[in-house]
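Researcher: We're teaching a course module on how sequence relates to structure. For the next exercise, students receive a sequence and then see the predicted structure as C-alpha cells, so they can try to spot secondary structure elements on their own. Here is the exercise chain.
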Amino acid sequence: MVEMVVPLRRVGGMATASLEAIVSELLRLATPEPGTTARRLPPERELGEALNMSRGALREQLSVLELLGFLHRTQGRGTYIDTPSDDFVRSYFTISRQLGYLNDQQFADARVMLEESVAEAAARVITDQQVEELRSDVDAMIAATQAGDHETALEADVRFHSRLNRIVDNPIFRLMHEGFIHMLRETIRYRRLEAVRVEPVDENGMRRTDSVHYDVVDALEQRDSDAARSAMHAHFEKWLELRIEPVR
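Model: And here is the predicted structure for the students to work with:
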C-alpha cells in the first residue's frame, strides 16, 4: 500500500498542510452517499493514518471545513463532506463590512450587476409556470404596499429576486445573491418606506418602483434576454431617481 503524504506549505516558519490539498485527499478517501451530494468520511483515526497527520492537526483542519460549511457531523451516522450552506458567505460579507473592507455602495453596485446578468440568463431558460410565479410575487408586492403592509411587501420583493435567481440555477450566483440580500435587507426596507413617502402613485394606485417589476416579467415571458436585462437595469434606475439617502 502506498503511503499518502499531504503536501505541506510553510506558515510562520511551521509546516502545515494546505486546506485544498487535504480536501482533495478527503474526497479520495470518502464514500459517496447514494442519492445525495454528500460523501461520508472514515473515522478520524483512519483519516489521520491515511493522511499521515496527527489527530490534533487533522481535527484542526476538519474544524475549519466545518466552520466554512463544507463538513457536517451527524450524531450516530458519521462525518460528511458536502456542498456548503449560505452561512459562510453571509458571515464573510457581514464581517468584511464590519471591518470596513466592503461598504454598502459596493454591495449595491455588485447586486445591480448580478441581477442584470441573472435576468438576462433567466430569459433563456424560464418556463411559463415560473413566469406566472414571478408575476404573482409582483402582485403580492403591490397589494401589500397599497395595504400599508410594508414588511410583507419587502418579503415579496426579496422573494421575486430570489426566485429569479433560482431559475438560473447557478450556485455561484445563488451564494452571491444570498450574501447581498442578507446584507442589503435593512437598506431595501428603508428605501421601500422612503419610496412610499416620496413617490407618487399612478392612476392604478401603484408606485413605479413596484410596477417596474412587471416589465421584467413581461420581458422574461417573451424570452427576450436583452429586454430582460434592460428592464432589470430600469428597475434599479427607478430607485436612483428617487434620490433617497442610503441607510447609515
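Model: If you want an answer key for the exercise: DSSP finds ten helices and six strands in the chain. The chain has a mean pLDDT of 86.
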